[in-house]
User: Fold this.
Amino acid sequence: MSLYQEYLNEIEERKGQGLHPKPIDGAELLSEIINQIKDVNNEYREDSVNFFIYNTLPGTTPAAGVKAKFLKEIILGEATVAEITPTYAFELLSHMKGGPSIEVLLDLALGNDEAIAKQAAAVLKTQVFLYDADTARLADAFKAGNTIAKDILESYAKAEFFTELPAVAEEIKVVTYIAAEGDISTDLLSPGNQAHSRSDRELHGQCMITPAAQAEIKALQAQHPDASVMLIAEKGTMGVGSSRMSGVNNVALWTGKQASPYVPFVNIAPIVAGTNGISPIFLTTVDVTGGIGIDLQNWVKKVDANGEVVRNENGDPILEEVYSVATGTVLTINTREKKLYNGDQELIDISKALTPQKMEFIKAGGSYAIVFGKKIQTFAAKTLGIEAPVVFAPSKEVSIEGQGLTAVEKIFNKNAVGVADGKVLHAGSDVRVEVNIVGSQDTTGLMTVQELESMAATVISPILDGAYQSGCHTASVWDKKAQANIPKLMKFMNEFGVITARDPKGEYHAMTDVIHKVLNDITIDEWAIIIGGDSHTRMSKGVAFGADSGTVALALATGEASMPIPESVKVTFKGEMKPFMDFRDVVHATQAQMLKQFDGENVFQGRVIEVHIGTLLADQAFTFTDWTAEMKAKASICISQDDTLIESLEIAKSRIQIMIDKGMDNKNAVLQGLINKANKRIEEIKSCEKPALQPDANAKYYAEVVIDLDIIEEPMIADPDVNNADVSKRYTHDTIRDLTYYGGDKHVDLGFVGSCMVHKDDLKIVSQMLRNVEKANGKVEFKAPLVVAAPTYNIIDELKAEGDWEMLQKYSGFEFSDLLPKSTARTEYENIMYLERPGCNLCMGNQEKAEKGDTVMATSTRLFQGRVVEDRDGKKGESLLASTPVVVLSAILGRIPNIEEYKAAVEGINLTKFKPISMN
Assistant:
């Protein structure tokens, strides 16, 4: 059967799902389609022409190379297609974004046919996705006296690719749609259990919110054809949780506009809003798509005549509505005045949503075009020997004389690009920075590949220290979806220059280690900037930003990222941990105490948490920095002590060496280079040449939070509060309760010890607790299933060497096998302990899940509705988050323990401890 016949069969299958033909990315299929186009009598010719024009992916996809070559033949008269004139061929090339299309346009522009060269030059002047090989050709031609090359460079220097674009409309009409009350997680917009379909944009779009919501959005569009639908998180924050480009892609697919008539299902210009604004990570994806994200502030705390906050019977502030955004309300965004209106009534100033930089993103159809455009303008001006005219909004620079620097301000100043020598920048400054480490995870990786292809990138930036492509999100089940997607992803990334968890050649053992743990190990400098394709990219060395697949692609391609220097909140500690408490309890208590200190205001949201827990090793400190995603912080920085940092770097070196020994290093010896850099950093610290990073004593913070360890008297549990009468307060991570609240009788259906929140000591705690119970009762029986997934293979190897893994094996009813990986997800559980393969497991929710309606006690990070456990008729699923000892004891008892049972169970166990610096 021909590839085209297979494609027709696939089209029929997709029709049954209500889908259009899948966009073409393969060279072989498109070559077959071109042969049918050339055959004027072919029965499939008409469809083939349409597929070629309207259904071929651009950029550097194999199909794009074939398409560009055929269009070149048409332009040169070497091929004739009635439906595609040479002029139309140029138009099609103009929508192909880079890579082979730029190569063809340069061939034509620098060729001997003057008329064709001028047409090619006109198209090139609109293009920005040029790389070194492309710009080198232009520079060489200019130096050789080519007038066309000079004309193109002069256009680039003036940034006509941007200035000639249509202006942003002064008024944008929107009609509101409340997608949910309370925080809206990206799981609602792009569910984790549909991760396999993210690269198939039309198919994945079907999973946004619900079919009913999709129908309501379409109805609003029919009623208001001149308005864009604005998706709203009423009384909450839009886009919390995972850093999914697929979330904003789905919003754009349903509410935005098509980016190009020749590229299907790639939409831009979504408009989103939240009473409490937009999650920082999600706002980045909005910028990538040229959209608008608005902080509505349409509900505020009610105050009495004396200005005091009015509270309900639970002591929570009562909110009152300032203005309505009920579904179907027609509003107007005025981009000149930067105001939101309802008719003639001004509702709120939205300047932060429409900064000069964001207005550029909107005009250009996304932030990538601006990033690459600025590079092209700089290149052209330098090549011509002129000063580039000021076209783009100048970067905001905040420099306050006499004010010290926070840790993040120091890192950004060190890594800043294009800042005048001696210039010191503070929070609020717009900065382009060099990135050190980049991570791509496997359920968003194929989208990162698409982004790299669309921006015509073919090789990793040489300025990066290293990059890693994980396999952890698809580690649990090696099903047909994973088998179809993951090898293709690993092959692309490996060839691109990224260290990959799975070897495309099959020479080294697949490493399904949780991505954040690997990134934490390969970060070998606390001055580093890390970008990762997951919201839990929160390393305990350096400053790390969870990002969408597009931002990850940009960092991989350019080695850079652009963002304002964030404000910081300083977190310090006093007092002493109780002997029966675990550090996880301190993490949860931090959130609870912060909210109490600031009267319910989350001062962490959108800011960097500078946490002073430097007496903890990187593995243990990561438990805190990881959870800052749930605190809605933009990022976090762990301030470490010299000796602790040295020990953490030595551990990192040993783990990187294991990766090298497995055969995971590449031809550029990236991993060996990381070890060399770690050795250099260790020597700098030991010699006092450059001690561990510390903020200045006179640094300025948005807020300072002091956590009192003395008042943490019981294990602290993050509760989704699924039955709260105020829907907006469900699934928020802000409800932190002590153990006694549950009365020792709340039923637990399943326990889960795993995710990036746990480290080696947590697995040792499981082993030690089993020994305690065995000693007391003669055996261990589970009244609820206990799923245990070590985050890395290294941890398992270390546990085996120390005798703990044998104890886990003794009481396990299931142990994973790399030789016989599961091919289907588990849907039912017995009351046994399951030793699962290293990876994300239940925490991700895309493969394994608890049984519907279960009450789960977990060490993981997420408690969003439907993530770990879905609802069933008559019973909401709920995932409560707690420390490892609480989870293990809950599974043994089948209920949440009381405080006496808990204390007895952890007696003599080495829990993760922390002492503030002042106590050491």
About this structure: The chain has 31 helices and 33 strands. The longest helix spans residues 642-662.
